C-alpha cells in the first residue's frame, strides 16, 4: 500500500511560469513532509519541508502548501527555470522514527 | 553544511565477489544513517536503517546476510554487498540524519555494476 503518492509521473512547464507538483498521503500519523530534487545518477537534494502545524512554508522560489484535511501537499516553483528540470520526490515522516516514506517522484521538464 | 560523501562513486565487479561502499558525514555527527537502492524510474527503496554502535534494522525483503551494514562511528557507515550477482546492479544511496526533524542529507550515490 503506497502511503505517499505522486500521481503525475511527469510534468512539462514553460520557463517563467509556475510549476505545481502534487503529493497525497494516506497515513494521518505523518507530521513532517519534505520535498527533494534529484538529478540523474545523483543523490536527492533537500529542497523544502513543512511541519504539520503549518499550512505553508516559503523559501525563495519554492513554496510548499499542506492541506491536512485532504492529506495533500503541493510544491510551487515560481518562476520556473531550466535548471529546475529534475525529478521531484515528496517524502513524509512520523514522530516515531527518522524514516522517510517516499513518493514515486514526478519528472519536471521546463521548456525554454 | 550537512555534507555526506560516498565512496566509490562507481564500481564494476565480477559476479561472486564482494563490494564495500562507504558513507561519511563530513561536517556533522549522524545519529542515524540510511541505505537506499534506486531502481530505474522508481522511487528510492529503503534497505536498512543503522544507528551508531548498534545493529542495522533491515526492511522487509532485504537480505541482511547479503547486504552487510556497519555503522562504526557517528560519521561512517558501510554497506557491503556480499557475493554480488548481476541483479544487484543498481544505484545505492546513503543518507544521514542528525536530528529528529526528519531531514536527511544524501550522499551522491554509488553506481554498482556486477558483470
Shape designation of chain A: globular
Number of strands of chain B: 11
Number of helices of chain B: 0
Uncertain segments of chain A are: none
Q: Biggest sheet of chain A, open or closed, and with what strands and sense?
A: 6 strands, mixed
Instruction: Please provide the count of β strands of chain A.
Output: 11
User: How many whole angstroms does the radius of gyration of chain A measure?
Assistant: 13 Å
Rg of chain B over CA atoms, rounded to whole Å, is: 13 Å
Give the H and E element order of chain A: EEEEEEEEEEE
Quaternary organisation of the protein chains: heterodimer
Structural class estimated from helices and strands of chain A: mainly beta
Largest interface: A-B, 20 and 25 residues
Percent of residues in β-strands of chain A: over 45%
Distance between the termini of chain A: 38 Å
Q: What share of the residues of chain A lie within helices? A: under 10%
Structural category of chain B is mainly beta
Helix content of chain B: under 10%
Mean pLDDT of chain A: 91
Give the ordered list of helices and strands of chain B.
EEEEEEEEEEE
Q: What best-fitting shape of chain B do the alpha-carbon axes yield?
A: globular
Sequence stretches where pLDDT stays below 50 over 5 or more residues of chain B: none
Amino acid at each position: 500500500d503506497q502511503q505517499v503518492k505522486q500521481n503525475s509521473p511527469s510534468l512539462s512547464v514553460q520557463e517563467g511560469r509556475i510549476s505545481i507538483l502534487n503529493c497525497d498521503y494516506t497515513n494521518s500519523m505523518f507530521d513532517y513532509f519534505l520535498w527533494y530534487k534529484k538529478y540523474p545518477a545523483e543523490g536527492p537534494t533537500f529542497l523544502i519541508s513543512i511541519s504539520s502545524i503549518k499550512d505553508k512554508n516559503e523559501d525563495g522560489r519554492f513554496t510548499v502548501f499542506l492541506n491536512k484535511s485532504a492529506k495533500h501537499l503541493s510544491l510551487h516553483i515560481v518562476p520556473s527555470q531550466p535548471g529546475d528540470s529534475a525529478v521531484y520526490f515528496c517524502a513524509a515522516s512520523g514522530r516515531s522514527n527518522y524514516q522517510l516514506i517516499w513518493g514515486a517522484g514526478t519528472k519536471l521538464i521546463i521548456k525554454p | 553544511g550537512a555534507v555526506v560523501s560516498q565512496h566509490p562513486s562507481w564500481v564494476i565487479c565480477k559476479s561472486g565477489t564482494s563490494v564495500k561502499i562507504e558513507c561519511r558525514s563530513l561536517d556533522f555527527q549522524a545519529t542515524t544513517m540510511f541505505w537506499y537502492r534506486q531502481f530505474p524510474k522508481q522511487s528510492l527503496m529503503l534497505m536498512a536503517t543503522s544507528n551508531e554502535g548498534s545493529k542495522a534494522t533491515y526492511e522487509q525483503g532485504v537480505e541482511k546476510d547479503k547486504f552487510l551494514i556497519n555503522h562504526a562511528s557517528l560519521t561512517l557507515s558501510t554497506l557491503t554487498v556480499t557475493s554480488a550477482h548481476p541483479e544487484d546492479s543498481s544505484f545505492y544511496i546513503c543518507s544521514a540524519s542528525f536530528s529528529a526533524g526528519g531531514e536527511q542529507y544524501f550522499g551522491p550515490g554509488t553506481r554498482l555494476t556486477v558483470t
